[in-house]
Each structure stands twice: as structure tokens, then as C-alpha cells.
Amino acid sequence: MLGTLILATAVTPVLHAPALPLPTQPVGENTETDSSPRPGENTETDSLPDPEPPASLAEMLTRIVIQPERYTGYNRRDWRHWTDDDRDGLDTRQEVLAAESRVPAEIRGGRVRRGYWVSPYDNVGTNTPGDLDVDHVVPLAEAHQSGGWAWDAATRQRYANDLVFDHHLIAVSAVSNRSKGADDPARWRPPNIDILCPYLVWWTTIKVRWKLSMDEAEYNAISRYTDTDCADTTIDLDPATVEITPVIRIRPRYPIIPIIPIILDLSAIPFMSNLTTGPRCHPAYSPCLPNRPGDALNCGDLNRSQRPVTVKTPGVDPYRLDRDRNGIACAP
Questions:
Q1: Which of 283, 284, 280 is nearest to 269 (CA)?
Q2: pTM reported for the whole predicted model
Q3: Per-residue DSSP letters for 11-78?
Q4: Residue 324's domain spans which residues?
Q5: Which one of 124, 164, 324, 328 is at 20 to 30 Å from 16 when CA atoms are compared?
Q6: Do 9 and 90 fall within a single domain?
Q7: Is residue 228 pLDDT above 80, yes or no?
Q8: Alpha-carbon distances, residue 330 vs 31, 268, 272, 284, 324 (angstroms)
Q9: How far apart are CA 147 and CA 70, in angstroms?
């Protein structure tokens, strides 16, 4: 299928595997002669929305928001892959390798052992899976920088393993993928000129599906081809939309100063001791005086609201405040 896309100007998405759950089931033209439904295909077509007409690259770009990218906070481990979402024993990488092999893939033990692939980026063929990387056309770092930084973990995982759009993930030579890195089309384009226009359409479609933005340089690098080389390149759009679940991350305007908890015995502070209640109050006195061992308190430690002090039981004066033993101590 991938070779057909290289030669054609219209790019039609085909499912790699059963679709991930979406609000509506993808609809696309089935070019296969076999009338049986493909994995994940909904046969109840009457209830599905009508497919949108093919869109040009220029039309796709009108759906893009242009804004600066956010370069901080990316961690590849936050984008969990490869997963086996349909639990068929093949993880996402193996699904892509099996689907894109130009001959029936040999699969053993949940891994693609042999097949034949042609890397679209550099037109290099191989029958060894180890020679290939499964590339996120819009790299994970780029997705983070253009809006994915706000996604929750489940959404990041869905993006990292998206098999719904056929060209979200593609098998390419390891050399070409390492050359690309996380660059956008402003800094890297496939050396195979025959795949340039499809690649730009794939890139833009992914950004539209996942509501990702473009920075100005990226947008300009793509738009320069809309009226020239890629003017006639179109894609049949999937009417289903990806449901994004963003996470709002509130960042403080000012640095956070760590607060070290300090436990204070308020009764140790004379003018605060009247705030203490319950067992903190010494049972021998009124009003409340701090309950301390021995005679650790004298009249000079008391504030005005605590004086005079009534000794509740004459003669029971642990703090020795009532020097004349008349039951009233620390009079002003």
C-alpha cells in the first residue's frame, strides 16, 4: 500500500489494525475487492456521517493554529509505547511492521521475524525488521511542544500508539529516522523527493486530528508547497475526531518558598497563653495558665488579660504565685 501512495497524488488512510475507541467510527473508501469487513470496521454505515470530500494541503493548513512552541517539560517516558491495545499479541511496532510488509510477514512469538519493506523516506528496501524504526511522523517531542504538554497520560499513550490514521506511524530505515530526529518540516524533509508531498500532508493531517499547533517557521515551510509541487496532493479526511483530554497545569507566578512546619507551644509565650484551652490549662488556676511541670511560671510571664490569677484551692499553688496565700495572685 505504501508504494501506491508514493506514486499517487491522493493519500487514502487505511487501518493498520482495529481502531482505538473514538467518538465515531472512521469512514474511508475500501479499495479492496474482498467485501468482508476489515478489523474494526463498522458495517452499520447508515448511522455514520458522510465522508468529507478530499482536502488539499492548503485547505488542511487553514485548520492549523500558529503559535510558539513550548520546549520545556518533555520526557519520552511520559508517552508510553509500544502497547498492545487490541490484545492480539502484537504491540504497536509489530502491528506497523506486519501491515507495511510488501510480502506476507512471518510472525512468531508476538514479533515480526521477516518480511520486505521499503522505507519511504529514503527508498531503501530490507527484509530484516531490525533495520527499521517505526517513526512517529509528528515526533513525540514535537507533539509535546505543540500542545501535547497539556494532555493527560491516557491521551499521550493514545497518540504514541495511534493506528487509526495509517500514516501516523510508518516503518522507515533507522538511518533516515535518526537523521530526522524530532525536527519539523522547517528543518527536515525526506530525501526521497517522491514522498515529500504525501509526507507534508501526513504531517498536517496529524496536527489537525490531534489539535496540535504549528510555529511560524514550520507553517511557512509547508505552505510554500501548497501552490507549487503539492498543489494537487489531497487526502480523504476521516470524519471522526480524536477526543483530547487536556490536563490543566497551574503554574505559580512566583517561586514557591518551602514552608518548614514549626510546632510552637503557645503557652511558652506569655501574651499567647490565653489562647490555650483544654488540657493545656493548669487545673489549679483561673484564668487559664499554661500547664507546665514544677514552678516554671511566674507573674512576670503573664499578660494583662491573665491577671490577677485566682488560686482555685488555697494552698494548692504549684507555681508559687500566691505569696501572701490569700487566693489571689499576680494582682496588677
A1: 280
A2: 0.60
A3: E----SSSPPP-SS--------S--SPPTT----GGGSPPPPPPEEHHHHHTTPPB-----SS--GGG
A4: 266-329
A5: 124
A6: yes
A7: yes
A8: 101, 18, 17, 14, 11
A9: 8
Say if residues 11 and 235 touch (Cβ distance below 8 Å): yes
Q: Are 161 and 16 in contact (CB under 8 A)?
A: no
Is a pLDDT exceeding 90 seen at residue 291? Answer: no
- Give me the residue label for grid cell 517539560: 73
CA–CA separation, 38 vs 223, rounded Å?
Answer: 35
Query: Which backbone phi and psi does 208 adopt, to 5 degrees?
Result: -70, -45
Q: ∠ CA(41), CA(47), CA(49), 5° rounding?
A: 85
214's grid cell:
504549528
Cα(290)–Cα(270) distance, rounded to whole angstroms? 9
Distance CA 90, CA 108 (A): 10
For 184-200, the DSSP string reads -TTT---S-GGGHHHHH
Distance CA(163)–CA(168), nearest Å, equals 7
Cα gap 86→80, rounded to integer Å: 16
**Residue 112: in which H helix or E strand, if any?**
strand 111-114
Structural domain contains residue 63: yes
Q: What one-letter code names the amino acid at 27? A: V
Does residue 114 belong to any structural domain of this protein?
A: yes
Do 92 and 198 reside in the same domain of the chain? yes
pLDDT tens, position by position, 107-131: 999 999 999 999 999 999 999 999 9
Cα–Cα distance, 327 to 332 (Å, whole number) = 15
Q: Which amino acid is at 250?
A: I
Cell of 198: 504525501
